[in-house]
Fold this sequence. Notes:
Layout: E1 5-12, E2 15-22, H1 27-34, E3 53-56, E4 59-62, E5 75-77, H2 90-97, H3 107-122, E6 138-139, E7 142-143, H4 147-153, H5 164-179
Parallel strand pairs: 1-5
Antiparallel strand pairs: 1-2, 3-4, 3-5, 6-7
Helix pairs in contact: 2-5
Pfam families: Fer2, Fer2_2
Organism: Mycolicibacterium arabiense
Keywords: 2Fe-2S, Iron, Iron-sulfur, Metal-binding, Oxidoreductase
Amino acid sequence: MKTQDHLVELRINGETHRVEADVRTTLLDLLRERLQLTGTKKGCDHGLCGACTVAVDGERVVSCLTLAASIDGSDVLTIEGIADGDQLHPLQRSFMACDGFQCGFCTPGQISSARAMLTEHARGDLSTASFEGSRADVVDGCARLTTAEIRERMAGNICRCGAYANIVAAIEAVAQERTA
Length: 180
């Protein structure tokens, strides 16, 4: 082992991986280059576009800014692990039904972010838009997931094709299914 190498153990999509990696290796590079999990995309490589979004211990992170060594021992969920075998995740189905993608490059990050965002909303985490709605938008102590709320919470994910209306519609459809 080189002096800057670190043994990183991560549970990725339910499978444990032990990898020696330079302490400067990002989670994104570890996923794509070392583990061949290429669904997570490298967009800007500066944490600005959201294409590399994954969940670490249930929280969404931009993997291009997350050092793999800093999350040693964590659970990581990538786009490859969102489906249940051959059964697509409701967000994946909804993105297809609502045409929530054009070129598809940002789609893995959009879906990963949307999945985590729905969990954040369900546990009552607030966004800036939560304070801008009316009291009628509050259901069971939680701000209703309005279009404005979804747009605010997904603001860190950029779609260069401009498929935002369909992305929001796809997320709204899944959110409505969950509350129905």
